[in-house]
C-alpha cells in the first residue's frame, strides 16, 4: 500500500527526471528535499518511509518539537529559515545543515557555539538574489566577502549556496536569480580552486522547480507540491 504522500513524491520525482532529461542533466545529481514546515509528524513519517529522509524546516521551535516525534526514524533536517543568533544554541545538534547563513555575526556565533560543544556543522550561504526586502540572504555583491570570512571559521563547512527565486510570474526574473547564484558558485570555486567544494546549489521550490533544474540546482526544496497547501492556522 503506498500512501498519498508516497504517490506525490513519486510524481515530483518523475517530473524531475523529465526536466533533467530535457536539459541533459543527470537526475542523480539533483536531490529532492521535502519541506515539512507546518506538516504533522505522522505525515512526515510517510515521506521518510517513502525514501526521503532529508527534510527542510524553517523554524527552530518546530524542529525541536518534531525531533522527539520522529526520533525512531533515521532522518536529517536542514534549517532553511532565518536563524536568529539567540537560537543558535538550540538548533545545533538537531540539524545536519543550516542553509540560511547570511551574516558574519551569525557565522561567528555558530563558530563559538560549535567550539563550545566541540562539534562541526555544514552550512550554505544564503544569497538574496531577488533583492526583495522581505527575503533574507546576503546581497550578491557581498557574498564572496562573506564566504571569505566564513572560510576562517574551521567549525563551519561551506557546502554551497542557497537562494529563493523572485516572487513573481515572470519566468525570466526567476531565472535571473538562479543564474546569479550559479555565477557566484563558479566565482567561489575559481577563487578557492576546489571544485568539490561549494558543490550544492539549493534553489527551486514547488512553483519554480523546472527553471531551477535548468539553471543547475542540485537541491530542490519542495513543500506544497508534496504535502499540499500549508495550513498555518493549525501549526
Ligand atoms: C516553504 C519553503 C520552501 C517550499 O516552498 P513550496 O512552495 O511549498 O514548495 C522552500 N524554501 C524555503 C526557504 C521555504 O521557506
UniProtKB/TrEMBL annotation:
Q: Which residues carry this modification: N6-(pyridoxal phosphate)lysine?
A: 37
Cofactor(s) required, per the database record: pyridoxal 5'-phosphate
Q: Which domain of life is it from?
A: Bacteria
> Does this UniProt record's set of keywords contain Iron-sulfur?
no
Q: Name one GO molecular function term.
A: pyridoxal phosphate binding
Tell me the ranges covered by the Alanine racemase N-terminal domain, including all copies: 9-230
Q: Which UniProt keywords apply?
A: Pyridoxal phosphate
Family the entry assigns: Belongs to the pyridoxal phosphate-binding protein YggS/PROSC family.
HAMAP family named in the record: PLP_homeostasis
**Function, as annotated:** Pyridoxal 5'-phosphate (PLP)-binding protein, which is involved in PLP homeostasis.
Matching NCBIfam families, A to Z?
YggS family pyridoxal phosphate-dependent enzyme
Name the UniProt record assigns to this protein: Pyridoxal phosphate homeostasis protein
Could you tell me the gene encoding this protein? yggS
Amino acid at each position: 500500500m503506498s500512501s498519498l504522500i508516497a504517490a506525490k513524491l513519486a510524481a515530483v520525482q518523475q517530473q524531475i527526471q523529465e526536466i533533467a532529461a530535457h536539459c541533459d542533466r543527470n537526475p542523480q545529481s539533483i536531490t529532492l528535499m521535502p519541506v515539512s514546515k507546518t506538516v504533522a509528524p505522522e505525515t512526515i513519517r510517510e515521506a521518510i518511509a517513502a525514501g526521503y529522509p532529508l527534510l527542510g524546516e524553517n523554524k527552530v521551535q518546530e524542529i525541536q518539537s518534531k525531533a522527539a516525534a520522529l526520533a525512531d526514524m533515521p532522518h536529517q533536517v536542514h534549517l532553511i529559515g532565518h536563524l536568529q543568533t539567540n537560537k543558535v544554541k538550540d538548533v545545533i545538534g538537531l540539524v545536519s545543515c543550516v542553509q540560511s547563513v547570511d551574516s558574519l555575526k551569525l557565522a561567528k556565533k555558530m563558530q563559538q557555539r560549535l567550539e563550545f560543544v566541540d562539534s562541526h556543522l555544514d552550512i550554505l550561504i544564503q544569497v538574496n538574489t531577488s533583492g526583495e526586502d522581505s527575503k533574507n540572504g546576503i546581497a550578491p555583491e557581498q557574498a564572496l566577502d562573506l564566504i571569505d570570512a566564513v572560510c576562517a571559521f574551521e567549525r563551519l563547512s561551506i557546502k554551497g549556496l542557497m537562494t529563493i527565486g523572485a516572487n513573481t510570474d515572470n519566468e525570466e526574473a526567476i531565472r535571473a536569480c538562479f543564474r546569479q547564484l550559479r555565477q557566484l558558485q563558479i566565482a567561489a570555486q575559481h577563487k578557492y580552486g576546489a571544485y568539490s567544494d561549494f558543490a550544492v546549489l539549493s534553489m527551486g521550490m514547488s512553483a519554480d522547480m523546472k527553471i531551477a533544474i535548468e539553471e543547475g540546482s542540485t537541491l530542490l526544496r519542495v513543500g506544497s507540491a508534496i504535502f499540499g497547501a500549508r495550513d498555518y492556522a493549525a501549526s
